[in-house]
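User: I'm putting together a teaching handout on how sequence relates to shape, and I'd like one worked example. Could you take Fructose-bisphosphate aldolase from bioreactor metagenome, show the sequence you're using, and then write out its predicted structure as tokens right after it?

Assistant: Happy to. First the sequence, then the structure tokens directly below it.
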Amino acid sequence: MTSYKDLGLSNTVDLFAKAVAGGYALPAYNFNNMEQMQAIIQACVETRSPVILQVSSGARKYANSTLLRNMAKGAVEYAKELGYPIPIVLHLDHGDSYELCVDCIENGFSSVMIDGSHLPYDENVALTRKVCDYAHSRKDYVSVEGELGVLAGVEDDVSAEHSHYTRPEEVEDFVKKTGVDSLAISIGTSHGRAKFKPEQCTRNAEGVLIPPPLRFDILGEIERRIPGFPIVLHGSSSVPMEYVRMIEQFGGRLKDSVGIPEEQLRRAARSAVCKINIDSDGRLAMTALIRKTLAEKPEEFDPRKYLGPARDELKKLYMHKNVEVLGSAGKA
Ligand SMILES: [Zn+2]
């Protein structure tokens, strides 16, 4: 048994309170390997941003949970070594059972998501409540994220055929009955790099897909019902066309990619939205640079020579997000 406090990690309680009051959102970046971790920590230290390191169940399968936990511990030390200790949260993304949440909490996670959004309302309440009861009764208080509403799209093991927006009339009751520390909502963001079908979008003059706008009316109604309560947005990559084009230029195929425009995320970050999940953009940046490097240097076979440029691009992307989109820069 390991408490996150022994690893030097933070839960989300104070960080979210500050973010809601300050009108910015914390970055929640997924990681599965060392290069991603280096890029995240370097970017967040340089921009002085707190950060949420997210681990999905897919990442646990891919990288081993013991290794991931110790990488998060290493990240705390690494930030200090870089000269500026930032608050770091280790968060389980899309926990799908009570047992998985408990396992993560007992192994150093400072925050977990229990995703009961696909269940009937009462079952979602009961499951989320059970996880909160355990996480909050501990001496070290682990924070819990719940979800109401179902996002479209596919992400690791998570996919939904029938998405629906969060019903504002449920949020007050859900928060009260479960005791969650934050709530993920569905207002039109979507998992993955093809967030909308072409027929849901319009096209601009260059033929680029323009997605339907986020439902700020629903967000506003939720904020009215639970003022100041920390809100989370999943599936919030912007899917930069420069990366999509680079990937396609060097042999990839990513038909009909479309994301959430950054100005809409910036607007959301200024509200009670205090955590924004970004995964696909990082995947695209890394893949683009790996494809480009390998295509331009066909003799290269040292992984450091193509993972290194990918890592540098990823760092650049994360710094841009912290400064220009989330507003978290300078808040650590
Ligand atoms: Zn998600």
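A couple of points you could highlight for students: The CA atoms of residues 2 and 235 lie 30 Å apart. The pocket of zinc ion is lined by residues 94, 155, 191, 234-235, 277 (CB under 6 Å).
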